[in-house]
Amino acid sequence: MPRKLKEATCTTRVLEALRSRDDFTDSLLLRSLTGCSLNQISAACTHLRKYRVIDVVIEPDGRAWWFALPPESDARQYHVDERTPESAPRKKRRAAHGPR
Fold first, then answer.
1. Domains, the chain, ranges and CATH?
2. Tell me: the pLDDT tens digits for 40-53?
3. How far apart are CA 19 and CA 35, in angstroms?
4. Angle (nearest 5°) at CA 67 between 56 and 15
5. What distance in Å separates the CA atoms of residue 52 and residue 90, rounded to the nearest whole number?
6. Are 51 and 36 in contact (CB under 8 A)?
7. Does pTM top 0.70 for this prediction?
8. CB 30 within 8 A of CB 41
9. What are the phi and psi torsion angles at 91 (to 5°)?
10. Interior CA angle at 31 toward 29 and 37, to 5°?
11. With contact defined as beta carbons under 8 Å apart, do 19 and 30 qualify?
12. How do the residues of the chain divide into helix, strand and coil, expressed in percent and rounded to 5?
């Protein structure tokens, strides 16, 4: 059975794009840099802003410009560089009710 290729999440791609640009970036440019949909970019930016990884400046016309904060301000509890498969097989669940 072939191994599943590990693909970066949209959150990871958005963060990498913002850190590599080192400048203000709007959602349309993030979409072209990452290949994610605008909904995925919005969700990723909201998540990253919650943990102080990125921040936003909103112009009076409503246009949002995202930028990366220094890595020291990152408030996420832990970082997983690479996921590893579980060592023990998962247990099968029993039915919540008995046979009928």
1. 10-71 (1.10.10.10)
2. 999 999 999 999 99
3. 16
4. 115
5. 35
6. no
7. no
8. yes
9. -80, 145
10. 155
11. no
12. 35, 10, 55
